[in-house]
Amino acid sequence: MVGLGPRRKPSRRGSLADVPKNLLDEIQNIEDQFILSADKLKEITEHFVKELEKGLTKEGGNIPMNVTWVMGYPTGDEQGTFLALDMGGTNLRVCEIILPEEKGEFDIIQSKYRLPEELKTGEADELWDYIADCLQQFIEYHHEGEDLGKLPLGFTFSYPATQEYIDHGVLQRWTKGFDIAGVEGKDVVPPFEEALAKRGLPIKLAALINDTTGTLIASSYTDQAMKIGCIFGTGCNAAYMETAGCVPKIDHYGLPPDMPIAINCEYGAFDNDHVVLPLTKYDVIVDEQSPRPGQQAFEKMIAGLYLGEIFRLVVVDLVENKNLLFEKQDISKLKKPYTLDASFLSFIEEDPFENLRDTHDMFLSRLGITATKPELELCRRLAELIGTRAARLSACGVAAICKKKNIEACHVGADGSVFNKYPHFKARGAQALREMLDWEKGKRDPIVLSSAEDGSGVGAALIAALTIKRVAEGNLVGIKDKTAFEEMVKS
Fold first, then answer.
1. What is the pTM of this model?
2. Residues with a known catalytic role
3. Per residue in 168-205, is it b (16+ CB within 10 Å) or e — as a string?
4. Is residue 168 within 8 Å of 187, Cβ to Cβ?
5. Which of 76, 110, 160, 332 could form a disulfide with 103 if both were Cys (CB 3.0 to 4.6 A apart)?
């Protein structure tokens, strides 16, 4: 018998050979709108650097560049038991993290709780009560009847907040689909601690942090080459370590100029003025119909919350205004805003079959639409274009931080559902970095994106540990509740 060699995987590319000219012309039209050249990426990155710098000034800019009061990287020698609370856009996660004597090691117990959709637009008290209930459930399940003393908590609050202290934070604005009245412009810690006190929970907040800052610190705990932490998920963001002398807006603290201080960029707000980002008409609609028009311009082009909606808007346009797809079919399910998310596009891109059978079945089961092979080919190409544009734009933020800090080589710890689960996102981002930073071909990439999954839970615990440690050493800069910290240091 003739050896046929290893069995070939099903082709994942599909074929445009049987796509009629009118659809091919439309694919070309969509490509013209969504493909970003290397020159465009460089232009975006140059503007990005300017906006990062502006955010550090006293006057500020679109990008908040929030000072976190996290002062330096972990050494790997941190020890103790800490709670971490991670409030993202979809889930609430409670973790207990034990930092043992072994350098750079940790043990973790965790539970996940779904954030009910109605909480995102409900009352503030309902949110804090729900979070406190989850913490209570966690402690009762894992430590029933135990005397825990006061457990230090790192709270990963993944929304733009101004922090004059590490143990407090004033919400600037809701993102990721949240829009709870009466919280913006206020310190989120007192109502949170009130909800804890009401239940008599043995918890003291030691640090309020952003998931991106947590990712930076957790990644550097296990890999000292990590210099940037990124989130590419429901939202998008980055954090990096700045020096106090490069942050004019904290000059009045009189800190040593070389003192390291982590900056939470909140760069989803990059180019809110629409100077450089190449918006399509679909991006404009996403912005206009969002809870916060005119805000988070960059995030709305690359974050998981919006990728499916951009896809949906293009497809509805091709059906209703151009009569190119799904003739005489009911598209009522498709017309519901945000009915598709990034996982829908991910599924299409991962379809291994030449005839796009899985995509066909998905359209039928999710949307009640029977699509032809040429229609599926157009949808596949559209998903690729939206996913690729997101990855390439994401790389601009990384390149901008590297340019600003003159970083020529480092690791970038990335977390979030889009980075970890969206097909080819990492490779497409890496390719964009090569094009933007003009690296020599044939050599290993000097700046490498690597997965830092679950960084924010461990990162929050580490930051709590680092904060207690620096208070013990007499560094009380950025600490509000000094008495509580002194008690934590004694215990």
1. 0.87
2. 158, 173, 211
3. bbbbbbbbbbbebeebeeebbbebbbebbeeeebebbb
4. yes
5. 76
